[in-house]
Amino acid sequence: MRPVYQFIEYRKYLDHFYQEQKRRKRHFSYRYFAKKAGLASHSFLKSVIEGKRNLTSTAAERVVKALDLNPKEARYFTTLVLFNQAKTAALKQEYYALLRSLSGPVHEGVLNPDQYDYYGKWQTPILRELVCLFDFGEDFETLGRAVIPPISAAEARRGVETLLKLGLVARGEGGRYRQTRRAIKADSAVTSLAVRSYMETVLDHAKAALNTMEKRERHLSSVTLGVSPEAYAQVVAEIQAFKDKVKGIVDKDERSARVYHLNVGLFPGSRSVDLDAGGPA
Question: Which candidate, 32, 37, 102, 141, has a CA 20 to 30 Å from the CA of 47?
Answer without folding.
Answer: 102
